[in-house]
Write a structure and sequence with these properties.
heterodimer; A: about 110 residues; mainly beta; 7-stranded mixed β-sheet; about 50% strand; B: about 110 residues; 5-stranded antiparallel β-sheet
């Protein structure tokens, strides 16, 4: 089955540690995205990538970093510089817009 | 200019009733308006989408109404069922911009 795989589903970290969230897709989509979801704030775009080895900042990129070394993979690193990292993180992919975004089932990150 | 404002934040409807969720936008360059449905612990999934060249699109019990002059679009769920209980997001994008702007989300509860 084609789809987006995010791992792990739950992640716990201590404050001050960097953590990397995995996102893999086998849909052969060119574009990939990372969104952050907080209650009452909808989905906010962190980073997106349209092609391998290229990516752009979204609306809330501070404290995050990404890489796109392969078409299938778009990992997100939450750095210690991110002030409020506890959230639900969603990865998505799509062909060139306007096309539906296909989302993974998210990673819930808790930092204490 | 890049915002999409969604209302209400939460909505409770009796089984068999009509659920209505509204969205408004400012950027007249937006030309693609999808709606996503998200169940707890899952990623959002495309429900239905509309382009501004039509005023209404229907798929089963789900209808998007689009008012270009008012810069508003809405989702109507007819004969609402308990299985429709989920969070709904409207979104918008413009040609050439490889990203979607999401509304804040509406948590819909259908009482049996």
């Amino acid at each position: 089955d084609g789809g987006i795989t995010q791992s792990p589903k739950y992640l716990f970290r201590k404050e001050g540690q960097n953590v990397t969230l995995s996102c893999e897709q086998n849909l052969n989509h060119d574009a990939m995205y990372w969104y952050r979801q907080d209650p009452g704030q909808g989905l906010r775009l962190i980073y997106y990538s349209q092609i391998v080895n290229d990516f752009q900042k979204g609306d809330i990129a501070e404290g995050y970093s990404v890489s796109r070394e392969k078409k299938e993979s778009f990992p997100l690193t939450v750095t210690s510089a991110q002030k409020n990292p506890t959230a639900f993180y969603l990865c998505a992919s799509s062909p060139i817009l306007p096309s539906p975004l296909h989302f993974g089932n998210g990673t819930r990150l808790t930092v204490t | 200019q890049q915002q999409v404002k969604q209302s209400p934040q939460s909505l409770i409807v009796q089984k068999g009733g009509i659920s209505i969720i509204n969205c408004a936008y400012e950027n007249t360059a937006f030309d693609y308006f999808p709606w996503y449905q998200q169940f707890p612990g899952k990623g959002p999934a495309l429900l239905i989408a509309i382009r501004p060249d039509v005023s209404e699109k229907k798929e089963g019990r789900f209808t998007i109404s689009f008012n270009k002059s008012a810069k508003q679009f809405s989702l109507h769920i007819m004969d609402s069922q308990p299985g429709d209980s989920a969070t709904y997001f409207c979104a918008a994008s413009r040609e050439g911009a490889q990203k979607l702007v999401f509304g804040q989300g509406t948590r819909l509860t259908i009482n049996p």
